[in-house]
Amino acid sequence: MKIVIAPDSFKESLSALDVAREIKAGFSEVFPDADYVLVPVADGGEGTVEALVAATGGEVVKLTATGPLGTAVEAFYGLTGDGATAVIEMAAASGLELVPPDRRDPLKATTFGVGELIRAALDRGARHLIVGVGGSATNDGGAGMAQALGIRLLDAAGRDLPPGGGALGDLARIDLSGLDPRIAGCRIEVACDVDNPLVGPNGASAIFGPQKGATAEMIAQLDAGLANLAAKLAEETGLFVAEMPGGGAAGGLAAGLHAFLGAELRPGAEIVMNAVGLDAAVADADLVLTGEGRIDHQTIHGKTPIGVAAVAKRRGRPVVAIAGSLGKDAHVVHAHGIDAVFSVLSRPCTVAEALAGAAENVRVTARNVAATWRLGQSVGA
């Protein structure tokens, strides 16, 4: 019997690989001789590098990069086992968690470090780049990233713009001539799971600016700056990104990656599952197990378990999900390919207790799911 285990991480407690290992441990108590294939996955956010590195036998590359406020930070990116694909989480260099709450300032925060990660990956020979754009501290439309890769953003006097979204209102001209020539030979995918446009009432500044420290006055300035950037990009490249769905992700970095580097925006879970070869893994599976920290009505909107289920159902395979917790409306996932769903919590507890006991809870739940599966087989026989 072949069992494919393809979960996402349980945030703040277990990585996707850890979850997969615990599920295997629990199932092995009931089915010790089964063929287990572990395929940890992610949706393009936190844990994407680890998932792809683990699934392909790759490596995590650590380096010093420019942080959101211009100071050096210890960052990382991943290389898949064949060395051809680099996996970058923008939050590793430009993430909100890198900035103390009292210092958050989207007028000055830069994505320059993301450009440095891209350049470092190019130096290692990667020509397929996957960029996850969750958890940003920035609102600069990818301006800093572009500058790190050789693009010049100039004001009316021909001076280079300073870092941050607050300077974009002064942008007068974009000079693309210095862009790293290796970019032309790259395929770049942006793991993007929001559909917010770059500007406007549902754009990057209005929706995500407040969590990055933006006041109402700042939001107006940032939105105007991104609108100016979009206008200058249209003039220079012929691309219109102001209203592009998903362009507002990571403070407009998604739009910048598309316009400056020719990147394609795609659902994060889809990108990751293609990269780890999930379809081939489930083709002859008897059972597919997935899961994440919480399953509720939001799960059906591009989250990992639904992506895994879609791949499995194309092959006609049964799917069971194991979750850290279930929302009262978790049943909606049954209409999207998940045949059964289980919570790992067996009793009321605090969040701290749930996080501390996550590994054991996943293992015990997996054992119970396996026992139920075996009972079903005996009844069916």
UniProtKB/TrEMBL annotation:
One of its GO terms (biological process) is organic acid phosphorylation. Keywords: Kinase, Transferase. It comes from Pseudoxanthobacter soli DSM 19599. GO terms for molecular function: glycerate kinase activity. It comes from the Bacteria. NCBIfam families: glycerate kinase. This is Glycerate kinase. InterPro entries: Glyc_kinase_flavodox-like_fold, Glycerate_kinase, Glycerate_kinase_RE-like, Glycerate_kinase_sf.
